[in-house]
Amino acid sequence: METTELLKKVRKIEIRTRGISRQLFSGEYHSVFKGKGMAFSEVREYQFGDEIRTIDWNVTARLNHPYVKVFEEERELNVMLLIDMSNSQNFGTQKQFKKDLIIELSAVLSFSAIQNNDKIGVIFFTDKVEKYIPPKKGKSHILRIIRELLDFKPENKGTDIGEALKFFNNVIKKRSIVFILSDFISSDFTEPLKFASSRHDTIAVKIYDYRELTMPNIGLIQSVDPETGKQIWIDTSNSNVLSEYEKFWEEEDYKLSQLLVKLNVDLIKLRTDESYIQPLMSFFKRRRSRIAV
User: Fold this and answer.
1) DSSP-derived secondary structure for 204-269
2) Where do the structural domains in the chain lie, given as residue ranges?
3) pLDDT in tens for each of the 293 residues of the chain?
4) How do strand 67-73 and strand 38-45 relate by DSSP bridges?
């Protein structure tokens, strides 16, 4: 993509997603993702009732008067986006490709993070880790992420969420919020996901297209797997074929849902022909309700 064209697209994405993030998600984001642990804030004079263990003995000795350390909740978080860049994301039969939805959603989450003074990092993956952008703050960092989202050309075509999670587990030690953005058409990733979810707040964002759920009766069609190139013919006029097709995807969706529940991983499902705003808002509300309880 030429530089001028890329910059125009970056600017367009920035204007749209930053506004959505600020108006709709920043307050919700702040309320459901809170920092873990306590960070030192200041020292002040000892007051009756303060715990003895909070006394700062060095300051007390220097000033010949008791002072205590004051701590507050550590607000800063690491937010990591694990973004599926495999060929199956270049699919969409309605409003947009899966990849288009992933780009916009990633930008919204990135702006929400920096508005909350959090760091944001990205792992692009196919069946291998294609690129890693370490967590940082700042608008220039977000714009770099958007540029990469728009212009990145992966080397491989397949999908292996497990490989991305293994890499994430190795490089990110601080407890983080991790969003996995994928259609979850992947080989088994149970163990690395189990490891990640035990240490991090993990959210699966499933991106899918309407035609992955149901197929129209349009006769004999050729289907090509975008990741392997394998071609098969499907007789969509055969009701048994259509029934088996829908049954397969229903079972895949059910297995994923059951796995995520078992591992305590939240799930957001977003369709390419529908707005992502309401599903995200519903997710935030569910999270806030659980926190309140």
Assistant:
1) EEEEE-GGGT-----SEEEEE-TTT--EEEEETT-HHHHHHHHHHHHHHHHHHHHHHHHTT-EEEE
2) 3-32+76-292, 38-73
3) 666 776 677 777 777 777 777 766 656 666 677 655 555 556 778 888 787 888 888 888 888 888 888 665 555 788 999 999 988 776 656 777 888 899 888 988 888 888 878 899 999 999 999 999 999 988 899 889 988 988 888 899 889 999 999 999 999 988 899 999 999 987 789 999 999 999 999 999 999 887 777 776 666 766 666 666 677 777 767 778 778 878 888 888 999 999 999 999 999 999 888 888 888 888 887 877 665 55
4) antiparallel
Three-state SS letters, 98-163: HHHHHHHHHHHHHHHHHHCCCEEEEEEECCCEEEEEEEECCHHHHHHHHHHHHHCCCCCCCCCHHH
CATH topology of domain 3-32+76-292: Rossmann fold (3.40.50)
Q: Which residues pair with 233 in a beta bridge?
A: 222
